[in-house]
Amino acid sequence: MPQGAPPAKNYTVSVETRSGGLTSTYGTDNDVFINIVGKLGDSNMFQLKQKGKNLFEKGKTDVFERTMADLGDLLGVQIEKRGKINDQWHMQSIAISDGTRHYR
Q1: pLDDT single digits (tens) 31-79
Q2: What is the enclosing helix (H) or strand (E) of 67?
């Protein structure tokens, strides 16, 4: 990190995909991106991915680790699904932790 930058923190992002309802296609094969916004800044949009893993499937929870500058108390998130597949992904919930603070 550049000199004078805030200290780095490890963030854990857990994304739960909905498991039931009127349609059976709640998962997605598109790319999913997140921007985490805190009192000290934001993460900038980054892709939630894990090499070789089929992510965001119906009824599953996917967990991602990311080290970045301390964002302070979290204020919100922005989620984007990008791709050419027309599906009906439904995110059930998202949880973020920095090891000491937990947000849902």
Answers
A1: 999 999 999 999 999 999 999 899 999 999 999 999 999 999 999 999 9
A2: strand 61-69
Query: Please, are residues 35 and 45 in contact by the beta-carbon 8 Å criterion?
Result: yes
End-to-end CA distance of the chain: 28
Other beta carbons within 10 Å of 23: 11
Architecture of domain 8-103: Sandwich (2.60)
Looking at residue 15, the DSSP 8-state letter turns out to be E
Domain boundaries, the chain: 8-103
Tokens, residue 34: 């997140």
pTM for this prediction: 0.88
Q: Which residues pair with 91 in a beta bridge?
A: 17
**Both tokens of residue 100?**
């000491």
